[in-house]
Amino acid sequence: MFTAYELQRAAVRPLQITLYESSDRLGGKVRTMHFKSADVRYEAGAAEFYDYSHFGHDPLRELVEELGLPIRVLGGSAMVVDGAVISSTDDVRSCLGGHAEASLLAFDRLARDRMTPSEFYASGDDGHATAREPAAGFGATLETIDSALARRYVEHLIHSDLAAEPAQTNETYGLQNYLMNDPSYMRLYGIEGGNQRLMDELAARLACSVRTGCRVESIEAAPSGGFVLRHSPGADAAEDQHDLVVVALPHDQLCKVTFGGARLREAVDRHRSHHDHPAHYLRVSVLFDRPFWRESLSGSFWMLDRFGGCCMYDESSRDPSMTHGVLGWLLGGDAARELARATDDEIVHAVLGSLPGFLSAALAANHSATMEARVHRWIGAVSALPGGWTPMPLERRHCPDPVGHPGFFLAGDYLYDSTLNGVLDSAERVAEWIAADLAEGRLPRRQGEHHEGT
Ligand SMILES: Cc1cc2nc3c(=O)[nH]c(=O)nc-3n(C[C@H](O)[C@H](O)[C@H](O)COP(=O)(O)OP(=O)(O)OC[C@H]3O[C@@H](n4cnc5c(N)ncnc54)[C@H](O)[C@@H]3O)c2cc1C
Under DSSP, is residue 53 helix (H, G, I), strand (E, B) or coil? Predict the structure, then answer.
């Protein structure tokens, strides 16, 4: 959707664009849902948007504004450790001791020294995969924290953002996920009325043919130029031809499409194995008749030292008029993958059992009732190491065979930073290249075709 929208904006001539979507809705992992037992919303996928506008150009924030969508600033600074709330360095000292506090401050200095806020922002220009360091895992960086309590604190703090274990990612991405907890590096917001409104507003402005319920099965170069795309079930013909193709799939979906012709297949296989670093999420949203936790915890979210470190959202804080309470658990990494194998009931039982003692007591004291719970499994759906161990040049990331298949592009968050900002950066990059090629007359065409391009 981002690519189609950016393309229709950037192209100097009208284009015929077709968007294929296998499910019956647009928006992918940006999904706002409603409970059945009350008309209450929750986010089933992407939780929040990352705000870089305090540095300058922030394409996602600008798009949200352009679409006229009101935002709500989100924030949280607490971490629950062994049943105690830590929200300041004083709390760290009193809960974890002076050694842990000193160790944590030393790590914090190291992280800030390795990446200033403006370096953090600039890393978005060529994807957050600007890592120049050798392929050492972030686990090695964490090992330098000499207090075990402080190390565990950092691991738990960033686990749900990484959606992976420290050894599965590199130092740059690990540090970014640590530093983004500081508002001088990054801020957070949601869209009033639900994050999916972004996709709905975008869909309403797409001047292209949108085919939902249309799964792309295979793509290969056509003998006459351009590409043949086969899809199913599809209301129309099961085979279409296009001059250019942008494959905007998450990396875990690439293996489900057949890429025809040895050269294209090999190029996509290389691309896929370079980016094959699956990370996992498990999201559980529970509806209560009231927000029983508000006397003990404020903010839109806090971290909890369970499931290897998880994020708990006060989903109901997104809507101040709501009288119900919604708690969301976002589990990441190995804990998410393992618990996702259990039934929904078992998962809900496990997350409710993870409530710290003071919240279980508040739940009982308020006679709050659990009304409904929803589980969403996102296994392998994001990348633990966007850009891969050795980042490729941007052009190669988006165009895996520039000589053999110059009209074949890929776009996705796994090429940047596993976020919506990354998808938009990637989409903009591809759209600008295509628009420039079109303006310069370099657009590959099918033989005998005289239209403006599809
Ligand atoms: C639980 C969770 C929390 C997250 N939280 C955040 C967050 O707070 N902030 C943030 O910025 N990002 C977050 N993300 C990441 C964010 O959701 C992704 O970066 C973003 O959705 C990726 O967009 P995409 O278009 O690349 O992929 P998707 O959103 O997955 O969209 C891909 C689309 O392709 C369709 N499709 C798949 N196969 C085919 C096929 N063969 N033919 C046609 N269509 C096909 C799918 O149905 C889907 O609609 C989160 C992700 C998860 C899972």
Answer: coil
CB 192 within 8 A of CB 208: no
Spacing, Cα 271 to ligand 1 middle (Å): 18
Summarize pLDDT for 228-261 with one digit per residue, the tens.
Answer: 999 998 555 599 999 999 999 999 999 999 999 9
- Cβ-based neighbour number of residue 442 at 10 Å: 12
CB of 79 shorter than 6 A to ligand 1: no
Does 328 contact ligand 1 (Cβ within 6 A)? no
Query: Which one of 3.90.660.10, 3.40.50.300, 3.40.50.1260, 2.140.10.10 gives the CATH number of domain 74-189+278-383?
Result: 3.90.660.10
| 327 and 288 Cβ atoms separated by less than 8 Å | yes
Question: What's this model's pTM, rounded to 2 decimal places?
Answer: 0.94
Say if ligand 1 is within 6 A of residue 22 CB.
yes
Backbone angles phi, psi at 62, to 5 degrees: -65, -35
Ligand 1 neighbourhood includes 292 CB (under 6 angstroms): no
| Centroid of ligand 1 to alpha carbon of 420 (angstroms) | 8
Nearest alpha carbon, ligand 1 atom 5: 46
- Say if ligand 1 is within 6 A of residue 249 CB: yes
* Most ligand 1 atoms within 8 A of CB, residue of 29, 272, 378 to mutate: 29
Domain ranges within the chain, ordered by starting residue: 74-189+278-383
308 lines ligand 1 (CB under 6 A): no
In the chain the first and final C-alpha atoms are separated, in Å, by 15
As averages over each run of 10 residues, the pLDDT of the chain (454 residues) reads 96 92 97 96 97 95 98 96 95 96 97 95 64 70 96 97 97 96 96 98 96 96 94 77 97 96 97 97 96 93 98 95 96 98 98 96 85 97 96 94 96 97 97 92 60 42
CB 434 within 8 A of CB 7: yes
| Structure tokens that stand for 71 in this block | 């935002």
Please tell me if the CB atom of residue 37 comes closer than 6 angstroms to any atom of ligand 1. no
CA atoms of 271 and 251, how far apart (whole Å): 9
268: closest CA among 411, 399, 431, 127?
399
420 lines ligand 1 (CB under 6 A): yes
